[in-house]
Specification:
Structural class: alpha/beta
CATH topology: Amidase signature (AS) enzymes
CATH architecture: Alpha-Beta Complex
Distance between the termini: 35 Å
Number of domains: 1
Order of helices and strands: HHEHEHEHEEHEE
Shape: globular
CATH superfamily: Amidase signature (AS) domain
Strand order of the largest sheet: 1-3-2-4
Radius of gyration: 16 Å
Strand content: 5-15%
Helix content: 25-40%
CATH class: Alpha Beta
Length: 237
């Protein structure tokens, strides 16, 4: 079984049944990143050793227990680089604390894994302005993945992450979700930024978002279904 192809919901079933361990998911994702990232450019870096240490103590009873999630490179993960896709910060800054989003994901059992590419300092809408790498749309490399969260958008459909987290502070229609499967556009902000979680399926999309909004769940969520040809929207109460 190629675990990198599975959704969060499917992986959670396998984890809770004891059929797989969190480290197995990470190994599968790392293999896929090594194979696909050179051509897609979704990731700026990933620390497999650190992630596997977290996986060893993952609480599988939590909603996202044992699930790896990539983090946009302007969101702090303690002990990891945070370059905002800029040469100015590349190799010069290591996050001294977890951002609110990261802390909430960890509290729900998720394992931060991978730094997703973006427009430098989030200034752009195509991820062509990254100073460190080029990200393409995994559905069609001749197209852009959107931005500024293009790395996050490209990671899920390229099967190198079950879900990713990105900071959205501008027009959500151009915020890097044109390449992914499902992305929530919350109508209740998460403090310290609005943070959609592009994922492979509708259910998998909602799982990180609901963890991020706890203990105050959103009144309602907009789910944006995207494809190479465009996007449609569905409303969930």
């Amino acid at each position: 079984m190629n675990l990198s192809q599975e959704s969060i919901a499917s992986l959670r079933k396998l984890l809770t049944s004891g059929d797989i361990r969190p480290g197995d998911i990470l190994d599968s994702l790392a293999e896929n990143i090594a194979a696909k990232n050179p051509s897609i450019g979704a990731y700026l870096s990933h620390d497999l050793e650190a992630a596997k240490k977290e996986a060893d103590t993952a609480d599988l009873s939590l909603p996202l227990g044992g699930i790896p999630i990539a983090i946009k490179d302007n969101i702090n993960v303690k002990g990891q680089p945070c370059s905002c896709a800029s040469r100015f910060l590349d190799g010069a800054y290591t996050a001294p604390y977890d951002a609110t989003v990261t802390a909430k994901l960890r509290a729900a059992g998720a394992i931060p894994f991978g730094r997703a590419n973006m427009d430098e300092f989030a200034m752009g809408s195509t991820t062509e302005n990254s100073a460190l790498a080029k990200t393409v749309n995994p559905h069609d490399p001749a197209r852009v993945p959107g931005g500024s969260s293009g790395g996050s958008a490209a990671a899920a459909p390229s099967a190198s992450q079950p879900a990713t987290v990105a900071w959205s502070g501008s027009n959500p229609h151009t915020d890097g979700f044109r390449a992914t499967g499902w992305s929530p556009l919350p109508r209740r902000s998460i403090r310290s930024g609005r943070s959609p979680a592009p994922s492979k399926t509708l259910r998998s999309c909602s799982m990180p978002f609901l963890a991020l909004t706890r203990p105050t769940p959103p009144l309602w969520i907009t789910l944006c279904r995207t494809s190479p040809r465009g996007w449609t929207m569905e409303w969930l109460a």
